Structure formats: structure tokens, C-alpha cells
Amino acid sequence: AQYVKVIQGTTSIRFHVKPSTKRLLPFSTLGRVLLAELPPPEAKKLVAEAVAASPDEGATACEVGEELKKIRKRGLALYADLVTPGATMLAMPIRTKHAARPVALGIAAPKEYFRENKQRFTELMKRAIAEHISSERHESRWPDDELSGEDSIRS
Q: What distance, in Å, lies between the first and last C-alpha atoms of the chain?
């Protein structure tokens, strides 16, 4: 995954990512959403290659494969501490007829702040994608209560 556009936070506690930063797809929230948008055989191949290239990342191909199934079902990914300790990221696919490759949008914040605002962030992103970005409506993919419990943030 490559970060194309990054809007930096303005609060005193923030995480910094530079545009053009690259991460292997299976090891980031955005990367997993992008993989979940691919046909399963293609995603499985890319995951196996990445895990083989970076065995110290701490996830097996099987574990990532199971996570991709959950992401496909929910239409979003939410992980804490996956890339940066203390940070949580929510990511969703952007489905548009104009994109030749999968595209995703993510928002990150300190874990405690995110925990208090996860439903608000989720609704904000769903609305922004549906109203301003995507060529398809997504409401049917996102049940209203999918983020109601604390266990919905994956670590």
C-alpha cells in the first residue's frame, strides 16, 4: 500500500505518515482493505509473497486470510496497534468505476480517542464515501451496530 494523500492531525498527540510511505499490504489496515477488494486467489497469492518476504511482521498467511474474510463481510477494517503502537485505524474501500485498482480511505487516531469516537468516525466515513467519492452506495454493507462492542477494535 502506498499513502497517496495524507492529512496530518493538528492535535498535540498525533501520528505522522509521509505521503509516498509504502507498507506491505497484509501488515496495515489500509493494505488489508485493498487486499479484501481483490479476487480471493489474487489476494492469497499477494499475502503469501508478503509473508514470505517479511516473516518477522508477526502475522501468518492463514491469519491474514481469515482477517480478509471478515473485512469482506463487514466492508471495513478496524485495527489497533497494527502498525503504530497506541494508534487505531479505520479503513474502508472506495468503490468507483473509474479506478483501475482498489482504492481505500482510512482515518487514524490515538487508541483511547478512537475508542470514544469510533461510531462517529465510522458514520462520517460511510457518509463521505457514499455522498462524495464512490459511484456505488454502501449502506447495505454496513450494519448499524457492527462497532458497538469494545472487541470490534482488532489488536
A: 20
Strands 103-110, 87-94: parallel, antiparallel or unpaired by DSSP? antiparallel
Contact predicate 33/25, CB 8 Å: no
Report how far residue 82's alpha carbon sits from residue 104's, in angstroms, rounded to the nearest whole number.
Answer: 17
Angle at 118 between CA 30 and CA 19, to 5 degrees: 35
Beta strands of the chain (E only): which ranges?
77-80, 87-94, 103-110
What are phi and psi for residue 19, nearest 5 degrees? Answer: -55, 145
Chain position carrying cell 494523500:
5
How many helices (DSSP H) and strands (DSSP E) are in the chain?
4, 3
pTM of the model: 0.76
Write out the three cell numbers for 95.
Answer: 468503490
DSSP 3-state of 4: coil
Give me the sign of the Cα torsion angle 137, 40, 87, 153.
positive
Tens digit of each residue's pLDDT (9 = 90 or more) over 52-107: 998 888 889 999 999 999 999 999 999 999 888 888 999 999 887 777 888 888 88
Identity of the residue numbered 98 = H
Packing angle of the helix pair 29-36, 40-53 (nearest 10 deg): 150
